[in-house]
Amino acid sequence: MIAQYWAVTVFVLATLALLAFMVGAASVLGGRSWGHEKNIPFESGILGAGSAHVRFSAKFYLVAMLFVIFDIEALYMFAWAVSVREVGWTGLIGAAIFIFILLAGLVFDARMGALDWVPKKSEHIADQARHESF
Amino acid sequence: MNLTLTHLFALLPLIIVGITVVVVMLSVACRRNHFLNATLSGCGLILALLSVFWVQCSDHGSQLPTLVSPMVAVDSYSLFYIGLILVAALACIVFAYAYFDRLKVHREEFYLLLLCSTLGAMVLVSAVHMASLFIGLELMSVPLYGMAAYIFKRQQSLEAGIKYLVLSAVASSFLLFGMALLFAAYGELGFAELGLKLVSVDYLDTWTIIGVGMMVIGLAFKLSVAPFHMWTSDVYEGAPAPVSAFLATVSKVAVFAVLVRFFILAPTFSVKLHTVIAVLAVLSMLTGNLLALRSHNIKRLLGYSSIAHLGYLLTAVVVLRSGVSDGAGELSESGQLVLEATGVYLVGYVLTSLGTFGVVALATHADSANRDTSELRGLAQRRPVLAVCMAFMLLSLAGIPLTAGFIGKFYVLALTVNGELWWLAASVIVGSAIGLYYYLRTIVELFLPTDDATVTAANGRGQALGALVVVIAAALTLWIGIFPEPIITMVNSALPVGL
Known about the structure:
Order of helices and strands of chain B: HHHEEHHHHHHHHHHHHHHHHHH
Number of strands of chain A: 0
Oligomer: heterodimer
Number of strands of chain B: 2
Shape of chain B: globular
Distance between the termini of chain B: 23 Å
Number of helices of chain A: 4
Structural class of chain B: mainly alpha
């Protein structure tokens, strides 16, 4: 293999050696400047504000997950849609059962409060705050 | 292929469990009532169990085995294991009701997860195609992650869930890679079609052996066979006790049944591969028993003992190397012995595991974080019935005569002797001898006096029903141990399709 492509091998090895030489020599010979400002992440010259560790509400993930689940389940409807004439009544019944199960899942999610954006507790607090302001 | 009413009728147990899932989901959405939802799930499983008998009896020999699609076969083999799975799931629901009764969490969704997982196990034992094998395995495992981590406020439980998730994912990837290699080599995904191609080649190439080997590794992860057993003790210990019971019974039975079916329909006749499986069997017999010696936590101990028991069972797969048919399409003698040993051993194993884990679930509180053997210490004073059942179940696990465990172990020994696998026979004996020590030690713990005066007497209908299930399991174990004829006849009539 190497004997066959010796030219390519030599080229790759030479490139690696050249790169190693450039980086190595620069780090040995070059100077180094330290400074407080140099440790700040470079954001196109604009100073960054705040930390990158933003805490998202867990609701975002829940809604995203529900979206993906129902989206993918809706994809199965395409398979029925393109063959709706061929599969006839059997297909219709099958699709109806499928949609019914999806609906049951949606009812479950809604009743569990997975679709409510504001949690029960903070809704209560918000209500109290509204009463106090009157 | 058209789906006719006959096919739907054959699928009745699966359909009933599927309907139960939707009904329980709507009922939870309607009204959160622990008793109502547990009862609904239990009724669904009982209906499914009755339908298994109906399907089995109604068309005797004429319609069965039914190949419902190229993927799912409902034959007497799958019906037998579906019945076993349903019984185990039913017992787990009873234990879960008693276990979660006092817990202040959302308890109702547990039954949803359990039903989904049971459905997956039922698909798995009916699988005759790689796709249905994978779908069944995932449908069984994915709810189990949630079940293992169900008491998420307890760190151990959460850890168990995450550990099981990661290792199951690894196992699934191995399984998929193995399937892909076999598909690349033969272009078939159905077990029987693959088997035809495998039989027609003279020499198995390395890729085939690697492919089947990777599938075996993937399934061995789920069976927690050494050296793929690392997750077992932590998951069994951390998960709620009913979940450990479910893991030890339903998931093991389903995976083992599909493994045996795969090796029957697609025999490899490769000495190399079966030597590897024999090594796995010996390793898990010794590792399981030796690790159990050092553990004092009862759930951990039972987890290790399940590793050893799966090791004993794997002998059946090793013997399958010579195939189950005698060339004329009839069941050969050794083939019949393999099926008999698998069925009888699994029935005994399921009954005893349900009993032991049931006692652990009933005797310990859901909110106690640390459960040791010492917590079962003095059980005979508090709950004499449970203690006697537990002692009997442990004797059965050890393989003492007059128990179902003895019949199972006898079959395994007969298998090894019949197949002239002397190394396996020797390690079964050594493993049982080691096992006897820790089983007897646990029994002694049960009857020791306890100095813990603060133990509250548990009562309630959940506890009573759970105790009843444990007593029934113990009685069945004794009955099979004394009079194994009916169960052997039942197993003998449960032949997989393609024979």
